[in-house]
Each structure stands twice: as structure tokens, then as C-alpha cells.
Amino acid sequence: MEWEPSENGGVPETYTLLWKEENKPYWNAITIPSATTSFYLQDLTPGKKYKVKLAAGNIAGKSNGTDIVAF
């Protein structure tokens, strides 16, 4: 996955990448430093469908996140 850096007003921030199998109830999450704008999801099962979204966070809180993308 790749994304464009968010507008952060100069405040250090992190990204939280969330993903899950389409029919599972729980999301997996990883926090990524703000200097990173890509991440390789590993150990996905071929033939399964997944959903993913990204949220930005800083001292003021977390964003609502992106729209969910299915693949």
C-alpha cells in the first residue's frame, strides 16, 4: 500500500493501518511513523478478500480514517 502524506500543520504524527479478512469481525492494526508512506501487508491468504483503511493521528487525536478499500 502507498499513500500521500496528510496535512499535519507541522505536528509530528503517526499513521494507523487497519486491515481484516472481509468476513472477520476484528481489525488488525499497526502504527506506522509519519515519515513512512507505504507498507507491505504480509501473510495474506491468496484467494481471500480483505478490507483496509488508514487513519492519521497526532497529539490532537486521530482522524476518522480513509474510506474502506476492499481487495
UniProtKB/TrEMBL annotation:
It comes from the Eukaryota. Residues 1-71 form the Fibronectin type-III domain. SUPFAM superfamilies: Fibronectin type III. This is Fibronectin type-III domain-containing protein. The lineage of its organism: Eukaryota, Metazoa, Spiralia, Lophotrochozoa, Mollusca.
